[in-house]
Amino acid sequence: MMPFVIPFAIPFKKLKKRTFIAxxxxxxxxxxxxxxxxxxxxxxxxEEHVVYKKHEFLGEFNVKWFPKDAKVYEIxxxxxxxxxxIFLEIRHGAGISYETVPIRATYQGAEGxxxxxxxxxxxxxxxxxxxxxxxxxxDTRQAFWENANLSKGKHKITIQTVTEAEFLAPISExxxxxxxKKP
Length: 183
Description:
CATH class of the largest domain: Mainly Beta
Shape: globular
Number of helices: 1
Oligomer: single chain
CATH architecture of the largest domain: Sandwich
Order of helices and strands: EEHEEEEEEEEE
């Protein structure tokens, strides 16, 4: 039986051209190949339900998000959205002191105008950050409109904080994700 080989180029300083060498895949390398493929497949399937995703970068940490600084997202759906979910995603520093922050999402589109007021949760009641992160950077995601039915075409969602605080910090990125209903 002939071993499975992958051709690859190794540049040699003494040679003017690249030389191709067939190297047998054995043992560890073959195991890594078979482990990497399902991992890549799993990571790529995470986005299969996303129909819109956009994030606005505010800057490096210690950036302030002021209540008057509304973020506007223009969404152009290529097909109707039935029973979808719309998420707010915020990238923030681990030093954020708020447990929850009041947010207003304003929708404008074919379905009419709609205000959605909700509390965005950064910390649990025990004070632990609820987002995922490493080091000082955390990504927190929260659904604010479930079972959304939107027709094909243009829609606009405006996100702003309605906190009584002068500003929120440290916030570095604010984004919207629209997902279709998972079967």
